[in-house]
Amino acid sequence: MSVDLNVLKDQLDGRTARIALILGSGLGGLAGDVDEALRIPYAEIPGFPQSGVSGHSGELVWGKLAGVPVILLSGRIHYYEQGDAAAMRPALEALRALGVEILVLTNAAGSTREDLPPGSVMLIDDHINYSGLNPLIGEPSDARFTGMTEAYDAGLRAHMRAAAEAEGVTLPGGVYMWFSGPSFETPAEVRMARLLGADALGMSTVPETILARFLGLKVVAASVVTNYGAGMTGAELSHAETKDVAPQGGAILARILKAALPRF
């Protein structure tokens, strides 16, 4: 199913943006910081994918952040909700059709590193698609052979680092590993991920990055760390912990993004 662009364009009434952000857990408050905001619930956009995950509000917001026109997707649909790695494709195709050129992805993630504690933020330099799933499976065109050498744009990452430095915020880079979810990883899987070079683990972002690159969008992404990986502290993991801790790092990432957007 595709998004009804005529309806969406009528709702936006001529509003456009070059930059779109997908807000993960802990970043929902950023939608409240938008000036001149126009809010459209996903349910009112025919064909738009809707998430059933608590903590994801489910609305498209047009407005200005730091004076820059943006489109925010407050909430995303995940692979584990329907078993479809390409679940976000209709949304991303709609963004491109609206003139979006840059996609900013955010997520909540678990850390494999002692020096990357809950409440911190990690800039994603690269990813590992551990799930083995791919949203381009079944795509008939040769465009499905999408290059991923620079999945996360080097120039945009440099702007994020410069913005963080200007804000006096530490922004380490790292590798994000995508697990399908919805269950959390085991301690053995966390140890394996660390050995393979993963710094953060999560259940989103990678399929969106692949789709965005397929569609010709530049991508930059960051993780809000909500917990240490299973087995690192002895505590059990939970979605409630993710929702409780995410706003801490989310506030830091929001500061960085507001400083970075004018640089984009």
TrEMBL record:
<dbReference type="InterPro" id="IPR035994">
    <property type="entry name" value="Nucleoside_phosphorylase_sf"/>
</dbReference>
<feature type="domain" description="Nucleoside phosphorylase">
    <location>
        <begin position="18"/>
        <end position="261"/>
    </location>
</feature>
<dbReference type="GO" id="GO:0009116">
    <property type="term" value="P:nucleoside metabolic process"/>
</dbReference>
<dbReference type="InterPro" id="IPR000845">
    <property type="entry name" value="Nucleoside_phosphorylase_d"/>
</dbReference>
<feature type="binding site">
    <location>
        <position position="25"/>
    </location>
    <ligand>
        <name>phosphate</name>
    </ligand>
</feature>
<feature type="binding site">
    <location>
        <position position="56"/>
    </location>
    <ligand>
        <name>phosphate</name>
    </ligand>
</feature>
<feature type="binding site">
    <location>
        <position position="108"/>
    </location>
    <ligand>
        <name>phosphate</name>
    </ligand>
</feature>
<dbReference type="InterPro" id="IPR011268">
    <property type="entry name" value="Purine_phosphorylase"/>
</dbReference>
<dbReference type="Pfam" id="PF01048">
    <property type="entry name" value="PNP_UDP_1"/>
</dbReference>
<dbReference type="GO" id="GO:0004731">
    <property type="term" value="F:purine-nucleoside phosphorylase activity"/>
</dbReference>
<feature type="binding site">
    <location>
        <position position="227"/>
    </location>
    <ligand>
        <name>a purine D-ribonucleoside</name>
    </ligand>
</feature>
<dbReference type="InterPro" id="IPR011269">
    <property type="entry name" value="PUNP"/>
</dbReference>
<keyword id="KW-0808">Transferase</keyword>
<feature type="binding site">
    <location>
        <position position="185"/>
    </location>
    <ligand>
        <name>a purine D-ribonucleoside</name>
    </ligand>
</feature>
<feature type="binding site">
    <location>
        <begin position="76"/>
        <end position="78"/>
    </location>
    <ligand>
        <name>phosphate</name>
    </ligand>
</feature>
<comment type="subunit">
    <text>Homotrimer.</text>
</comment>
<comment type="pathway">
    <text>Purine metabolism; purine nucleoside salvage.</text>
</comment>
<feature type="binding site">
    <location>
        <position position="204"/>
    </location>
    <ligand>
        <name>phosphate</name>
    </ligand>
</feature>
<comment type="function">
    <text>The purine nucleoside phosphorylases catalyze the phosphorolytic breakdown of the N-glycosidic bond in the beta-(deoxy)ribonucleoside molecules, with the formation of the corresponding free purine bases and pentose-1-phosphate.</text>
</comment>
<protein>
    <recommendedName>
        <fullName>Purine nucleoside phosphorylase</fullName>
        <ecNumber>2.4.2.1</ecNumber>
    </recommendedName>
</protein>
<dbReference type="GO" id="GO:0005737">
    <property type="term" value="C:cytoplasm"/>
</dbReference>
<keyword id="KW-0328">Glycosyltransferase</keyword>
<comment type="similarity">
    <text>Belongs to the PNP/MTAP phosphorylase family.</text>
</comment>
